[in-house]
Amino acid sequence: CVFTIFNSKAQPDNPSIQKRQVPSVVKIITMDKQLVEGWLYAVNDSQLVLSQSLFRLPESLREGNLLRIPAADVKSFSVAKKGRVIRGTLIGLGIGIAAGVIGGYADGDDEPIPGDFFSPFFSISAEKKAVAGGVVLGLGGAVVGTIAGVISKRKFKVNGDPEKFSNIKGKLAFNNL
After folding, report:
1. For the segment 74-102, what is each residue's pLDDT rounded down to a tens digit?
2. pLDDT for the residue 90
3. Which of 48, 95, 96, 102 is buried most, with the most CB atoms less than 10 Å from its CB?
């Protein structure tokens, strides 16, 4: 059985626009203090291009399928990756479970103390320690991961300055948010 993998990328309509690979939600505050929300479709030297699918805008402000917001009209904006909260939760959960299980097995079995009446009741096997540690640290990791996912958005202040926007553009064009 032979598998063939094709990795082709279509050319963008405008070569100066760099299309993002990871879907991101962007919230823009314009110079006249309006809030504009949508999916970040592309970025070039002078504008942000948003996809229409997530807009909360009146029809009069839409231009075809895409909304182009010039850098001169942008006061500030924030960008957040799609699924960042669930991804953070799952990563935290996984790390917590792994740490708890490894810690439980590394601690080993408790040996009962001869002659101590209560010792057999408080002797815990490595497996039980691993399960308890995995549950406790897994839940803690999930909470920490959720918090990290919620606060993991990037905020940029442009204040209508095309030079500041051009410097920020490089950070948005690649998937290093």
Report:
1. 888 888 888 889 999 999 999 999 999 99
2. 95
3. 48
β-strand pairing of 18-19 with 35-43: antiparallel
Asked if 89 contacts 145 with a C-beta cutoff of 8 angstroms, the reply is yes
Report d(CA 170, CA 9) in Å as an integer.
Answer: 20
Show contacts of 149-153: CB within 8 Å, 24+ apart.
149/84, 149/85, 149/86, 149/87, 149/88, 149/89, 150/84, 150/85, 150/88, 152/80, 152/81, 152/84, 152/88, 153/78, 153/79, 153/80, 153/84
DSSP 52: G
By the 8 A CB rule, do 51 and 71 touch? no
Rounded to whole angstroms, the Cα distance separating 157 from 167 reads 11
Count the neighbouring beta carbons within 10 Å of the beta carbon of residue 171: 13
How far is the C-alpha of 50 from the C-alpha of 40, rounded, in Å? 5
Q: pTM of the entire structure?
A: 0.61
Which pair of tokens denotes residue 105? 């097995």
